[in-house]
Design a protein that fits this description.
Length: 81
């Protein structure tokens, strides 16, 4: 029995995955602002992948910035296909 057909979103390219990983490493050093700026720049360079937005949302939440976290979460949902 076949299930519903569903598109699989493409994985982010290696440079985007690298930026996400660097951002998480920065949060381990309590450099949340630097990590957020890295992901914001990645997003603004037209790398509009939900993984970028979800990571930015989680990093903002860890920094205690609820409104920014929600904004990034909304972007992540909009860019999930």
């Amino acid at each position: 029995m076949a299930g519903p057909s569903r598109k699989i979103a493409p994985a982010p390219p290696p440079e985007v995955t690298y930026a996400i990983n660097l951002a998480w490493e920065e949060t381990l050093e309590w450099a949340h602002a630097k990590a957020h700026e890295r992901l914001k720049q990645t997003w603004e360079q037209e790398h509009r992948f939900p993984e970028v937005a979800w990571s930015a949302a989680l990093i903002a939440a860890r920094a205690g910035d609820t409104s920014t976290s929600y904004a990034w979460g909304e972007l992540a949902v909009r860019h999930t296909d």
